[in-house]
Design goal:
763 residues, 37 helices, mainly alpha, Rossmann fold, 2 domains
Length: 763
């Protein structure tokens, strides 16, 4: 008598309990669940195993346990581990603006890759770049949802490498390329429909984005320091091929006579509690683990750090699935015995049954359950697929495969990669709405109070005269306004504050410090060729012109002008100013300082110049003036001499590299704050001046200043208006406009009105 015929129906309770635990506990006891996942999985497993031992004996229990653990769980989790580790070593870097178009491209790339590097591999490769590209958004959850549907699920339908349930089918005899031959039309239709729906949804949410979010996108798209898209960890691409080879050999070796025992018809190997461990099994496991080990050893720590690589997602899958695989033993046994009498006999019935359960359970055990059911039915249909659970009708196998893969995306518990994507997305702040939400979450994590304020554009512009008055001298730093309000709020609660000034200059925090590393790639190219190519690209509107221009120049030529906002050339000054200008150029001002460190690397030289000019002339000036405006004492612990002495001993590659800044400081901060916050991209106080100056309201306001009596005293007003018009037409002249505008405002306050501007109204 078959085992399934003797098992009572209530023996599947631990299986149901395990799956319900996965579905319910994260919603009602999230923190407890995170700490006790393995305990829950083992508890349900023991709830099945203990009575089973008493009823059937230790030998039968060991055989059943070995079949599911050695035969299914080990190759399943090893494959996921291999793909996770190898893909986690590939870093897709560069500046990507999360537009609808760019998001569609990334989703399509992920969908195409998923069947060949696994949904796990494709998801791990692309989820982080996709999240980074969309940091500007308030509404991002829909992007992750579509990513799960397309990349973590549907895209993996073509091969056993693609999705875990198909891999389990492969282990049970489904040919490697069977799904590729039969399911691709369904994938094509599914992808077209989902991408079309995504475009509609994404454009809807884009329209709903507040203005400040769209302005962040504009700043990101037009940033001068955009990093070209690039791959790091190239060696892992070859290691992915090693993983693929392991899986293919698992199916190929049993077909080679050299590896098959003529007497038994099985591959050479050995048996563990009745489970045959053949050469193909050993080769597959060995190659995948070898790929994972080589990836871990040969991939730099920096590449994994940039991916925020953690063991938690794969560890969660490993803990939960040991419980799932053990507790599903009675369910599979019962289905083998009675699957033919369940009333499922049509492809449509199998599709909806498999899909419905895959939506709310996990699609891997669901696939195995219904494949076993289909095998129990048997068939003599043309093209029938011979499996270890019986002969399966091809249309029914197609229905089971499509139901499991496509509908495993409906909930995050539907498929193992969904877990990983969910964890990574939440860790990267998908729930984050903006910087305020990040601050709230960090404050909650550290159990400290958080106070915030949103500065609307009306309040910003109304505050400009008061801020310029407090500065005493003309300042064109738009972030001074944000600091003004930060200090205003702080002054209502404390008498002194700690500020982070100096951290960027000492420890390599500005993205422009990365430029020498990216420029090094073009050090072989003639400078004249780079300048010529840059000019052509700029005229044609092709991105990358700034990158080539910088690569053609020395830091002394371009750095200080770009970093400090001194935006006018000597020729532009001559055209703009009445009476001309004999003031030294930025290069002339900085040349003596550069000369003091001429033997040091380019990044260190930039840091040195910043200490002399940027830090003293802007950062600390702004910090001091805005805090004193509210009788608040601002202290700067990073500028302690001992901190500087420590920072001076850190090699430049440990401060900044091509893809990250403040490397050592970030790593040190992980001792005090969560890694996600420590590795968060630097943002500062971005102000959407670029967009504001293109709005009629502010264009006209600034134009009135640019054509007034004060402007005519110092400037050729026609040139000022030309700057405004060029900016409104699409060229970025915002820094130049802002410099002049702030000077005019400061001059009017101190030399014309000679009165103290009113404080901005509290809002």
């Amino acid at each position: 008598m078959e085992l399934g015929q003797t098992l009572p129906i209530w023996s599947i309770i631990p299986f149901a309990g395990m799956l319900l635990s996965i579905a319910i506990f994260p919603l009602v006891r999230a923190e407890w669940w995170e700490k006790h996942q393995l305990l829950v999985a083992l508890a349900w497993a023991l709830l099945f195993l203990v009575p089973f031992v008493f009823a059937y004996g230790a030998e039968v229990t060991a055989e059943q346990l070995a079949e599911v653990v050695i035969g299914d769980y080990v190759p399943f989790i090893v494959l996921l581990l291999g793909l996770y580790v190898v893909a986690g070593g590939i870093h897709v870097g560069g500046t990507i603006a999360g537009t609808t178009r760019n998001n569609v491209i990334m989703l399509l790339i992920g969908t195409l890759l998923a069947s060949w590097v696994g949904t796990t591999g494709a998801a791990m490769l692309l989820i982080r770049p996709l999240l980074r590209a969309n940091l500007w958004r308030k509404y991002r959850a829909h992007i992750v949802v579509f990513f799960i549907f397309l990349v973590a699920n549907a895209g993996g339908c073509l091969t056993p490498l693609g999705d875990p349930p198909l891999f389990l089918g492969y282990l049970r005899g489904v040919p490697f390329f069977w799904t590729l031959q039969h399911i691709w039309p369904l994938l094509l239709v599914n992808t077209v429909l989902l991408i079309g729906l995504f475009v509609v949804v994404d454009r809807y949410f884009t329209r709903r984005e507040p203005r400040e979010s769209r302005e962040k996108l504009e700043l990101l798209s037009r940033a001068d320091d955009r990093v070209p898209i690039h791959l790091q960890g190239w060696n892992n691409l070859f290691l992915l091929l090693l993983v693929i080879a392991g899986v293919i050999l698992n199916g190929l070796i049993p077909q080679l006579e050299a590896f098959v025992d003529a007497e038994t018809g099985m591959t050479f190997g050995f048996s563990v509690f009745g489970v045959h461990i053949g050469v193909e099994y050993v080769v597959q496991i060995a190659l995948i683990l070898l790929a994972a080990a080589l990836s871990w050893v040969t991939t730099s720590k920096d590449d994994r750090s940039r991916n925020n690589f953690e063991w938690a997602p794969i560890a969660e899958v490993a803990k939960l699935f040991i419980g799932i695989f053990i507790t599903m033993i009675p369910a599979l046994a019962i289905l083998r015995a009675y699957g033919g009498s369940l009333g499922l006999d049509s492809p449509l019935g199998f599709f909806w049954a498999t899909g419905a359960l895959s939506s709310f359970l996990d699609n891997s055990p669901t696939y195995v359950v219904f494949l076993t059911t289909a095998g129990a039915l048997g068939t003599d249909a043309a093209g029938a697929v011979a499996t270890t659970v019986g002969s399966v009708d091809p249309t029914i196998l197609l229905a089971i495969s499509a139901g499991a893969v496509f509908m495993g995306a409906v909930t995050y518990i539907g498929n193992a990669p969904n877990f990983m994507v969910k964890n990574i997305a939440e860790g990267a702040g998908v729930k984050m709405r903006d910087e305020i939400s990040w601050a709230h979450e960090l404050a909650d994590e550290l159990h400290i109070a958080n106070t915030n304020k949103y500065i609307g554009e009306d309040e910003y512009w109304e505050s400009l005269p008061r801020v310029q008055w407090h500065m005493d001298e003309p300042s064109a730093d738009p972030s001074a306004v944000a600091l003004y309000f930060v200090d205003q709020i702080a002054a209502t609660q404390v008498k002194a504050v700690l500020s982070g000034e100096g951290a960027d200059e000492f420890f390599g925090g500005y993205r422009i410090y990365q430029t020498p590393f990216s420029n090094a790639k073009l050090s072989w190219a003639p400078k004249g060729l780079l300048r010529g190519a840059s000019g052509v690209m700029r005229k044609l509107g092709i991105r990358g012109a700034n990158y080539l221009e910088r690569a053609s120049e020395t830091p002394e030529d371009w750095y200080y002008t770009n970093a400090n906002g001194v935006a006018f050339t000597v020729e532009e000054r001559a055209q703009l100013l009445r009476g001309g200008c004999n003031a030294p150029t930025p290069q002339q001002l900085t040349a003596p300082v550069y000369a003091e460190v001429k033997d040091l690397d380019e990044t260190t030289r930039m840091q040195y110049v910043d200490l002399y000019f940027w830090l003293v002339g802007d950062i600390l000036l702004k910090t001091d003036k805005m805090s004193m405006a509210h009788s608040l004492e601002s202290r700067v612990p990073f500028l302690d001499r001992r901190v500087f002495d420590v920072s001076a001993t850190i090699p430049t590659p440990l401060k900044a590299n091509e893809t990250q800044t403040k490397l050592t400081l970030r790593e040190a901060s992980e001792r005090a704050i969560p890694k996600d916050w420590a590795q968060k991209e630097k943002l500062g106080f971005p102000v959407p001046v670029v967009n504001w100056l293109r709005q009629d309201r502010y264009y006209n306001q600034v134009k009135e200043w640019f054509t007034g009596d004060i402007a005519r005293e110092f400037f050729n007003t026609d040139e000022l208006v030309r700057l405004l018009d060029e900016h409104k037409a699409g060229a970025d002249r915002s820094r130049k406009i802002w410099i002049v505008y702030m000077f005019l405002m400061w001059y009017k306050i101190y030399f014309v009105d000679k009165t103290v501007p009113e404080k901005p109204q509290a809002r």
